[in-house]
User: Which sequence fits this backbone?
């Protein structure tokens, strides 16, 4: 079915409803056909009344309508009572307002009081660099700056000594809060939700975290990870925490303390290597 084209009056009405101005040509172009002239009846408009008068008329209508009886224990309130209250708010009009009988305001009860919202607090602030060894082991480095070439070389030597021969992944930065904004209501919960969402987003790209290696000590990050007794409550994964990579690079004592741990890493990596592959 082919729709019939709109006439000029209908088209103008559509344009007016959409808030668009209908332009009408005033000059005839050379060699153009003459437009057909027609008379459009102008719609008659009632003179606008002041808003107060219109509201008074609506109130009179509402007061004159019959009200259905409703079975209730409370006494019904007459419609005229509502009309008198509304007229008192509108102000004087041509008709005198009826006097209103003062009514006692109900006493405020404790149940009606709205609960007091929690006071806004400052958001927790921390930053870290995150990488995943073949998507299995998370490596966390607290700090704003990514590891330099010396730190990456040391990390590769440690993993190779532990029998973990993998290609060194790229580190991704994570900073909380994501943007400076207003205060928050639950700083710890919101920070944990943000870091969990970051890790979960990488899970959809192939990450399957089994263990966490944390090089460095950050009190705020420790609270967010909910680390306790070599376990991360936030991620529900085993967690190891040691010295930072720069500290390991300059301290022979730190290297010797880490040496027994490498054997545990080797056993943990190989225990699930066959399952993952």
Assistant:
């Amino acid at each position: 079915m082919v729709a019939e084209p709109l006439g000029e009056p209908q088209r103008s009405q559509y344009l007016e409803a959409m808030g668009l101005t209908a332009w009408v040509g005033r000059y005839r172009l050379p060699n153009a056909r003459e437009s057909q002239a027609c008379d459009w009846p102008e719609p008659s408009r009632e003179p606008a009344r002041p808003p107060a008068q219109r509201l008074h008329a609506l109130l009179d209508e509402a007061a004159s309508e019959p009200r259905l009886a409703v079975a209730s224990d409370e006494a019904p309130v007459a419609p005229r009572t509502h009309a008198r209250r509304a007229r008192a708010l509108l102000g004087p009009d041509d008709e005198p307002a009826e006097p209103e009988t003062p009514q006692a305001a109900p006493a405020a009860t404790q149940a009606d009081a709205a609960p007091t919202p929690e006071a806004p607090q400052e958001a927790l602030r921390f930053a870290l660099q995150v990488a995943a060894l073949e998507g299995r082991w998370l490596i966390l480095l607290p700090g704003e700056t990514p590891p330099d070439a010396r730190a990456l070389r040391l990390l590769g030597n440690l993993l190779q000594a532990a029998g973990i021969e993998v290609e060194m992944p790229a580190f991704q930065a994570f900073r909380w809060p994501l943007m400076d904004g207003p205060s928050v209501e639950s700083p710890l919960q919101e920070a944990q939700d943000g870091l969990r969402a970051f890790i979960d987003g990488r899970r959809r790209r192939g990450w399957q975290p089994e263990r966490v290696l944390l090089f460095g000590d950050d009190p705020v990050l420790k609270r967010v990870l909910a680390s306790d007794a070599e376990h991360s409550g936030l991620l529900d994964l085993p967690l190891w925490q040691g010295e930072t990579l720069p500290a390991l690079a300059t301290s022979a004592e730190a290297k010797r303390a880490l040496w027994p741990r490498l054997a545990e890493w080797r056993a943990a990596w190989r225990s699930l290597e066959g399952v993952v592959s």
The first helix runs from residue 8 to 17. The beta strands are 126-133, 137-142, 172-176, 211-215, 231-232, 237-242.
